[in-house]
Structure formats: structure tokens, C-alpha cells
Write a structure and sequence with these properties.
Helices cover 39% and strands 18% of the residues. By secondary structure, it is α/β, with parallel strands linked by helices.
């Protein structure tokens, strides 16, 4: 199977590429606005090709007749989109539309897994959400994701692509450096203290709950999305809330203390950032994932296990 990954230099793109390249049966084209690396842990690096591509200008150059599937991960994250409206619109919407048009012209019917976000939701929210809740985004990022969801749904209805939209929970624990995402601290408050570095939580409410998923489980679900029969989905509505678990700030701190000890916990500081908190409180905290479970997707067993996995495998 030949698979395209956009945004391949990013965290999720690299994880999925490494998983694909652990099997001889996959060949992978990694593209990004910068030169994406081939993951160091790839078992079959010879099955990968990379390219630096601006999708707004040259999307058709990466869509070949031999292509079987595409993971669409490129994007400007939440805080970044809010800070630079024009850049968010270009990268998150214009580049995606160009890519969809290239699929339509050169590879109609291709399986496309589009990465969306719980940021499409906004207030007021019911206590528990599912796919039937009407999205009312309160950020530029959420609005851009919702626009692209509509495009993927429409291109799927018209059989231009065979799309699946996965609304990601917040991914934690991510390795690497902090990002422009509003949710970045949800990895940073574990990652940095385990590395002996102070981390700041931008609110002073330990009961604040986030809907989280570990990198390992996310990749498992993305691989599952490659092969599930879309006949089980409505032709015009391909949205699935990817499974997560609700975890409070206190529970995250408890997991950090168990895995990293009191010294690591002492490096977590709480300082309220009103603008950041405003964004965070528009996101759902409890999701009914029955649709995803019925389709064979899975959730983490515990956040503590996600911290253990990070320390052992990703840290």
C-alpha cells in the first residue's frame, strides 16, 4: 500500500510514518512545508520518500495514480491560528482544499484520513458530547477545522474521495518542545518535569478536565482508519470522535508523582493565563465514543500508563 502523509515533519506525522515503515508492505511519501525526516526508528527506511512541498502551489505534484491512501496532518495549531488569522486560513483551509482538488482530479475515491479536533466544539456544550452535537467553534483553529470537515464530507458524498474525519482528543504525552497549541501544557506539565525543567499550568483549577489520548493509542486508531469499511458511515457525514479519557489536572499531577516522584511534581507551577484559559474552557471534557467503539477504535486504559509509556518509549 502506498500512503501519503502531509505535515509529515510534525509529531503525529512522524509517529504514523514510523509505524507504517515498520512493515514491508507500505511505501510512504512524507511531505511538509519543510524537509521532513524519515523517522529514525523506521525498520524499512528504503520504503520512504520525502519532499518539501507547498500544497497551495503544488498539491498535484504529490498525488500519483499509484497512491492508495493519505493522512492529512498539516496545520497551524490553535494559539498559532488565533495569533495569525491569514496564515491559519492559508495552511488549514487553502492547502487542504488544494489537496482535495488534486485527489479529485488524479486519484478519485482515495482513502483520506483527515485529522480534525475537539476544537470544533464551543459553548454552550452539553455535559456529554457525541457526533450529533452541533459544532460552534470559538477559535479560528476550530472554525478552520470545521470548514475542512465540511469539505471532506462533501468530497466523500460526491465520491471524489473516501474520507474519514477523526476529531482528535488532546494528545499527551508528546515529546519534544512546547508548541503554539493552547493544549501544549498538557504534555509540558509531564514532559518538562521528567526532564528536570519547570513547567507552567495556565490555570489555577486542579479539577479542570481535559479529554486526552496517548500517542500510542492515537497511532493505533489512525492505522485502524486505513482499512475500516466506510459503508458503515453516512456518505455525507464521515466524522468520528476519536476515543479519549477524561483526566483532571490533579489526576495528571498524581500520575506525574507516581512515575517521576515528588521532585518532578515540585517543578509544576500554576499561574493563570486568562486568554489561554478562555480557549481551554470552550473544549469538551466528556465525550460519548460509542460510534468509534462500534467501528473498532479504542481508548487508553489510564493516563498513568500514558506517562509510563512516554518515559519508557518516547522520552
Amino acid at each position: 500500500m502506498q500512503v501519503l502523509i502531509t505535515g509529515a515533519a510534525g509529531f503525529v506525522g512522524q509517529l504514523v510514518a514510523e509505524r507504517l515503515l515498520s512493515e514491508r508492505s507500505y511505501t510512504v511519501l512524507l511531505i511538509d512545508i519543510v524537509d521532513p525526516p524519515i523517522p529514525k526508528g523506521a525498520k524499512y527506511p528504503e520504503n520512504a520518500k520525502t519532499a518539501k512541498v507547498d500544497l497551495c502551489e503544488a498539491a498535484e505534484s504529490v498525488v500519483k495514480d499509484s497512491l492508495d491512501a493519505a493522512f492529512v496532518f498539516h496545520g497551524i495549531m490553535s494559539a498559532g491560528s488565533e495569533a495569525n488569522f491569514d496564515l491559519g486560513m492559508k495552511v488549514n483551509i487553502d492547502a487542504t482544499r488544494s489537496l482535495l482538488e488534486a485527489f479529485r482530479a488524479k486519484k478519485p475515491g482515495i482513502r483520506v484520513i483527515y485529522s480534525s479536533s475537539q476544537a470544533v466544539y464551543g459553548l454552550p456544550l452539553p455535559e456529554v458530547i457525541d457526533e450529533s452535537v452541533v459544532p460552534t467553534p470559538q477559535t479560528s483553529y476550530g472554525a478552520e477545522k470545521l470548514i475542512c470537515e465540511t469539505l471532506v464530507n462533501e468530497y466523500s458524498r460526491r465520491d471524489f474521495i473516501d474520507g474519514i474525519i477523526l476529531r482528535f482528543p488532546t494528545i499527551s504525552v508528546r515529546p519534544g518542545k512546547p508548541t503554539a497549541a493552547a493544549s501544549s501544557f498538557l504534555s509540558g506539565m509531564i514532559r518538562e518535569p521528567l526532564d528536570g525543567i519547570e513547567s507552567v499550568v495556565p490555570l489555577e483549577d486542579r479539577s479542570f478536565t481535559s479529554w486526552l489520548c496517548s500517542p500510542r493509542t492515537l497511532v493505533t486508531n489512525l492505522m485502524h482508519a486505513l482499512t475500516i469499511p466506510t459503508a458503515k458511515l453516512e456518505p455525507h457525514f464521515r466524522v468520528i470522535n476519536s476515543p479519549g479519557i477524561g483526566v483532571t489536572i490533579q489526576e495528571m499531577m498524581d500520575a506525574l508523582a507516581k512515575v517521576g516522584g515528588d521532585k518532578a511534581l515540585s517543578l509544576v507551577k500554576e499561574r493563570r493565563d486568562a486568554e489561554m484559559e478562555k480557549i481551554l474552557r470552550t473544549w469538551p471534557t466528556k465525550v460519548n465514543n460509542k460510534k468509534a467503539y462500534d467501528l473498532g477504535f479504542q481508548a487508553d486504559n489510564s493516563f498513568e500508563q500514558a506517562v509510563i509509556d512516554y518515559k519508557q518509549d518516547l522520552g
